[in-house]
């Protein structure tokens, strides 16, 4: 990561900092770079002639987490749970309704445009759609060089040389400087977006679904590129994604969101080995395991019935209790706090999995038993007897030999039958030919005899 130094003639010109964003020293690896407390975003619902507010969509409703320097925080959850809104809030593309966002120890929650301008150098975002995030009227060179112009930065060697270097860093040809976005594939456009985000050497990069719109082969290339750039440049990532396999590959810690709240926050190994929240367990059960050795092994798939409740009027108490198979009366009335039950693993649940019950003695609600459906995968294969699966090869070989002999006998019978048929047909042809010859010679002999007389 870059460090603040005194400006000389050969250094990059840095715009003046505002009072709300005084420069500080870079966070050391492992120190808290970003801290979010009670973050909220409610979108108003207006109706009527006077457009009065009649309600609000609680997209994000109280988030508490931090991101350490040099790590990757993965955020997962269903569509509509507030992941993308959270990413836009911490980059200050949206104005928070409540809570605080601190970057390197200073509050940036309500900084204005002038106060956020120098902060844009340190916080960048990679957008979800590579097709709509690039201006089709601008060349690649113009798109990647825009941050330098907006920040008044003149790189050493010139803007064009730096843009070509960035293109080479993300795996594109520097000669593509004058091409337009429509001349590139989806994966190449996403690389252009990554190059633009890295232009000013940021400290924090928020990647909103960076590979969801790409093919599987291109996904692997972009994910590996992000990993390599993090090691080379010391970047800090907040990666938002649906694919749990991608999150597992790139993340150090993972936050699971449901209906605007974080229900579990843990390091990667703990979360995948022993998930605590029932919602996390249901998500993990849906992840296919590409291991041929596990073929035929029984595994349970937890299917949640019903839809996600509306964020306009979320359920009282625990927001997951309408789809949870462990819900009790306390889940309907009291909202669980996000507490640390194991080292490095926080969960917001009254009755967590793989941990002591936080509200013992409660009876499961009758409707909770019908909220899910457990499907056993691989049951038919697993119920086969071991003797049948480990049967010796000799009976099979004997059966194959008998089948081959039977086939040879059938072929020999068909051949003999065909030869007999051909011989019979030849004999009949010969007899008919002889009869025809005798019939033809009879009248000629009679005429010859009469002529002699």
From TrEMBL:
Disordered as annotated region, ranges: 1-26, 383-453
The entry's keywords: ATP-binding, Nucleotide-binding, Transport
GO MF annotations, alphabetized: ATP binding
Keyword Transmembrane helix assigned: no
InterPro entries attached to this UniProt entry: AAA+_ATPase, ABC_transp_ATP-bind, ABC_transporter-like_ATP-bd, ABC_transporter-like_CS, Oligopep_ABC_C, P-loop_NTPase
Superkingdom of origin: Bacteria
Listed Pfam families: ABC_tran, oligo_HPY
Bias kind Low complexity: ranges: 383-440
Residue ranges occupied by any ABC transporter domain in the UniProt entry: 45-284
Family: Belongs to the ABC transporter superfamily.
Protein name per the record: Peptide ABC transporter ATP-binding protein
Species this protein is from: Streptomyces violascens
